[in-house]
């Protein structure tokens, strides 16, 4: 057992964990299950019989056994491998592809060559593409062997026979299932390059609850200096689930940022929006325009705090783009500082004391340094995280995790997966 940088434990698997139990019929009966990996193997009994038609032998039907049609994983620490038996072999190439749904095409990733005999085994290692999404598709192909059969008749069991008569082409497909998180939608994004490391329903419209405050705090910080004083309006003071701001009191921009990031004060967000836009509706228009500038393509804000309102929606990908801006923009350092602050005491202009506590349970674990929680009835349990792997900052977004605690568990799993994928890519490059 080892522990990754962000505190997630996972097990090293042994080769024996993948052995198949053989029944009396000789067919694969079951696969050994472990806590770190669960496999659903379906070893089809593909076979062939050489035939003769009208006194002339037919080309050999290419067959393969041991190739999994479906493959279910719950752990990410080992690659997916298969040992397949091919016939006829005689030095033929086995090519491995994965399907890229973004490019909408099959991508060749490796080629193997069989030994120079009739029936040969080949061990295939699949790329880590399956780690980047809950479902992935692979296929193996073997091109046909050409031959006219003019110099041979009889069973196709020798190299000369196959060369003369030829052999059919083969394509076999496999689907991997790897649902790492409980969230309905999730992504991990490199904050600098915007490359997605992991994605699950990245463009599915969902409400994002108080993650909305990432945009509110961004616009507030871009509009005013930290010591600028904001007056608390009646609308802001009456906004539910706030820190208790009073109408007619004042709060500095810096303190409003802390009130939004730590206890997720909705009254602080409403006051910020009115200060920037004049009204909540005007501020929502500014939010939507800024989101579009940051590359968001499916985000609509209707308020500054994220409480359930008709029309409010975004996507995991869009929220990751906004979070990436928060984590990299030089002029948003106060937001980053607030996001990783566990607790703070602030005062209003009239001297009212507010003791703030951060709702982010991952602070102090590994390299986590943010970013924003969110929960409403319609949005579910959401969280935008920020962490570092090998000197690079990554942001993660989980929308509608199964429970409040699982939004953090999902994020830790994504951080561990990111470490694994980064390490794999470095090893491949060396």
Q: Please report the distance between the alpha carbons of the first and last residues.
A: 26 Å
Which CATH C-level class of the largest domain is it? Alpha Beta
Low-confidence stretches: 1-55
- Radius of gyration, taken over Cα atoms and rounded to an integer in Å: 29 Å
Percent in helix = 10-25%
CATH architecture of the largest domain: 3-Layer(aba) Sandwich
Q: What share of the residues does DSSP label as strand, in percent? A: 25-35%
Give the averaged pLDDT, no decimals.
Answer: 87
- Major β-sheet, in short? 5 strands, mixed
User: What is the CATH fold-level name of the largest domain?
Assistant: Beta-lactamase
How many domains? The number is 2
Q: What is the strand tally?
A: 23
Tally the helices: what do you get? Answer: 9
Structural class call reads alpha+beta
Shape: elongated
Strand order of the largest sheet: 8-14-13-10-11
What is the compact description of this entry?
This protein is 24% helix and 28% strand. The chain is elongated.
Spell out the blueprint of helices and strands.
Blueprint: E1 2-3, E2 9-10, E3 20-22, E4 28-31, E5 52-53, E6 56-57, E7 63-65, E8 70-72, E9 81-87, E10 93-100, E11 105-113, E12 120-125, E13 135-142, H1 159-165, E14 170-177, E15 185-190, E16 196-200, H2 213-223, E17 229-231, H3 234-237, E18 250-252, H4 253-261, H5 266-277, H6 280-293, H7 316-328, H8 333-339, E19 343-347, E20 353-357, E21 371-376, E22 380-389, E23 392-401, H9 404-429
Parallel strand pairs: 8-14
Antiparallel strand pairs: 1-2, 3-4, 5-6, 7-9, 9-12, 10-11, 10-13, 13-14, 15-16, 15-23, 17-18, 19-20, 21-22, 22-23
């Amino acid at each position: 057992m080892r522990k990754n940088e962000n505190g997630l434990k996972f097990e090293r698997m042994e080769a024996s964990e993948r052995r198949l139990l053989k029944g009396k019929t000789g067919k694969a009966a079951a696969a050994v299950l472990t806590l770190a990996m669960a496999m659903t193997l379906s070893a089809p009994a593909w076979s062939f019989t050489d035939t003769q038609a009208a006194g002339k032998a037919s080309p050999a039907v290419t067959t393969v056994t041991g190739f999994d049609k479906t493959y279910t994983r719950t752990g990410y620490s080992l690659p997916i491998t298969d040992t397949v038996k091919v016939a006829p072999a005689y030095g033929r190439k086995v090519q491995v592809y994965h399907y890229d749904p973004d490019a909408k095409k099959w991508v060749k990733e490796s080629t193997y060559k069989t030994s120079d005999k009739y029936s040969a085994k080949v061990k295939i290692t699949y790329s880590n593409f399956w780690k980047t999404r809950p479902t992935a598709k692979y296929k193996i192909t073997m091109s046909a062997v050409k031959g006219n059969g003019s110099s041979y008749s009889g069973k196709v069991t020798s190299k000369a026979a196959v060369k003369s008569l030829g052999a059919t082409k083969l394509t076999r497909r496999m689907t991997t299932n790897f649902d790492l998180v409980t969230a309905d939608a999730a992504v991990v994004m490199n904050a600098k390059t915007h490359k997605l490391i992991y994605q699950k329903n990245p463009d599915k419209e969902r409400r994002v609850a108080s993650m909305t405050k990432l945009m509110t705090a961004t616009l507030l910080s871009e509009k005013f200096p930290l010591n600028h004083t904001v007056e608390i309006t009646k609308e802001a003071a009456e906004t539910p689930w706030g820190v208790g701001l009073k109408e007619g009191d004042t709060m500095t921009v810096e303190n409003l940022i802390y009130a939004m990031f730590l206890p997720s004060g909705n009254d602080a967000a409403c006051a910020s929006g009115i200060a920037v836009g004049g009204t909540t509706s005007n501020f929502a228009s500014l939010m939507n325009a800024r989101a579009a500038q940051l590359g968001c393509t499916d985000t609509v804000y209707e308020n500054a705090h994220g409480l359930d309102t008709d029309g409010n929606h975004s996507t995991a990908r869009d929220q990751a783009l906004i979070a990436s801006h928060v984590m990299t923009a030089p002029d948003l350092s106060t937001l980053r500082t607030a996001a990783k602050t566990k607790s703070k005491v602030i005062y209003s202009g009239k001297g009212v004391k507010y003791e703030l506590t951060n709702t982010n349970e991952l602070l102090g674990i590994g390299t986590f340094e943010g970013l924003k929680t969110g929960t409403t009835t319609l949005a579910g349990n959401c969280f935008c995280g920020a962490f570092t792997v090998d000197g690079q900052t990554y942001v993660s977004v989980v929308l509608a995790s199964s429970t409040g605690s699982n939004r953090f568990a999902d994020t830790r799993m994504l951080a561990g997966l990111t470490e694994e994928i980064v390490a794999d890519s470095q090893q491949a490059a060396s």
